[in-house]
Amino acid sequence: MIEFARLRQTPKNSITGRMDGVATGEPWFPGRLHHEIPPWVITGAFFHIRLRIARSAVVRLTEVSVAVPLLRAAADYHQRQSWYCHLLLLMPDHLHALLAFPRHEAMSEVVRRFKRAAARCQGIEWQDGYFDHRIRTPAELEKTADYIRRNPVVKRLCVQPEEWRWVWAAGQVVLPW
Ligand code: NI
C-alpha cells in the first residue's frame, strides 16, 4: 500500500504538509485550510468516487432543489469529518468526488449513508453500488480533479470549468448557491 506520507521522501513528488501534527513545510493543499486537515487525510489515500442515478430516474442531480442540499450534505460530511472532500461535482445523471475517509472500512458505510439520505430527502434513485478508484499520488489527484472539473465542459454544459455552479471543494468557505 502506497501511503501519501511516504511519497514525500521522493524529491519529484515532494509532498509537504502536516504529518503527526508537525508542520513540515508548505502545504500541498490550499494554505488557508492547512490547519484543518485531519491527520488521516495525509496518511490515508484519496478515492475517486462516482455515483450514478438509475436509468429510470426522473430527478436530476443538477436540479436546484436537489443540487443545493446535496452539496450542503457533502460540505457537512466534510465539516463533521465523515470524509475529507477534496472535490465533489454534480452532473445531471452522476456525481464525481475525490474523498478521503478516516478509516478505509468506513468508505462503503459512509457512501451508503450519503446515498440513502439523498434518496429519502431528495427523492434520488441511485444505481446500486458505486465506482471507486484509489488515487496513488498527488499528481494523480490533481489530474483527476482536473478531469472532474472539465466534465461539464466536455458535455457542453458550460464553456469554462469555473462557470459550473454544482461543485464543492475543501476550502470553499463561501457557498455560491
Ligand atoms: Ni463524468
Structure overview:
The structure is a single chain. By secondary structure, this protein is an alpha+beta fold. It has two domains: 1-44, no CATH class; 49-168, Alpha-Beta Plaits (2-Layer Sandwich). The chain contains five helices and seven strands, in the order H-E-E-H-E-H-E-E-H-E-H-E. The chain has helices at 4-7, 39-43, 64-79, 106-122, 138-154; strands spanning 18-19, 22-23, 46-52, 84-90, 94-100, 131-134, 167-168. The strands form two sheets. A five-stranded antiparallel sheet has the order 6-3-5-4-7, with helices on both faces. The chain has a two-stranded antiparallel ribbon with strand order 1-2. Strand 1 and strand 2 form a beta hairpin. The protein is globular. It starts with a helix and ends in a 9-residue tail after the last strand. Mean pLDDT is 81; it is low at 1-34.
